[in-house]
Amino acid sequence: MLPYNNGSLPIEVSEFLLNCFVRSPTWQLWLSLPLSLLFFLAMGANATLLITIWLEVSLHEPMYYLLSLLSLLDMVLCLTVIPKVLAIFWFDLRPISFSACFLQMFIMNSFLPMESCTFLAMAYDRYVAICKPLHYPSIITDQFVAKAVVFILARNTFLTAPIPIISARLHYCGKNIIRNCICASLSVSKLSCDNVALNRIYQLIIAWTLLGSDLILIFFSYTCILRAVLRLKAKGTAAKALSTCGSHFILILFFNTILLVFVFTHMAKKKVSPDIPILLNVLHHVIPAAFNPIVYGVRTQEIKQGIWKLLKRGG
């Protein structure tokens, strides 16, 4: 779709059209059902977790504050992406304004690294708890959480903000159809009339720097935890320590596995259907959000007790 003025010259576009799964329109109906269920599950489970931690005084501890931050990030990511995707599936509301598109791009590019950085802070919390238990109360304090939150917000906002800013400053005078369900920066920048090499290089460097460094530090923390656990000689202590860290590690592994699969399928796009990376990109914004609070609720006794107390209050 080429917008022209009366002089037959291309004009700047004011909105984009999100075209996803156009090759398989039946996907939209079938995907909308599990996607809507995952969305409501994610919103409900994270809201329940936040309310439980807020109302239960025994959960007012650094580890649960970090978990609250993770839930908030998950809810914002879900609300930013999934309602628009469902609106496309159900009502064919494909248009998205210029400003809304780049706002969505900013939130996606900044909040996903924030989530990765939150996992890193939680891994450090578990490392101190198991490897330096006597120093835990003096190291992992409310002040530590406050500083960690400021660092998470500042680092990822500052380093990822140039991506949507650079993309928004490009000239879009040609096609305005985005071959994606969301305003992914690479999908949007393809529509620009300008040279987008700088945008792509910067995004690649930032993505691998932020997510890669977080992943390396997380695995280093859990390697130290595993070594410390194997040295524990008290009966049942090692099993209890591994159980405490199990939920953290499962969620971190799941978060990064989906991301890595998306990266590899995007790189091998000539060998796979172009709809697969689009689908994985959408699912990466809802599946971790849906399972994060469930895994913590199942594996953390204090949270289960807090939710049970909350339900009894409501009854």
Automatic annotation (TrEMBL):
InterPro entries: GPCR_Rhodpsn, GPCR_Rhodpsn_7TM, Olfact_rcpt, OR51/52/56-like
Spans through the membrane: 35-57, 64-90, 96-123, 144-166, 205-229, 241-264, 276-298
Domain G-protein coupled receptors family 1 profile residue range list: 45-296
Topology in the lipid bilayer: Multi-pass membrane protein
UniProt-annotated location(s): Membrane
Keywords of the record: G-protein coupled receptor, Membrane, Olfaction, Receptor, Sensory transduction, Transducer, Transmembrane, Transmembrane helix
Cited function: Putative odorant or sperm cell receptor.
Protein's name in the database: Olfactory receptor 56A3-like
Taxonomic placement: Eukaryota, Metazoa, Chordata, Craniata, Vertebrata
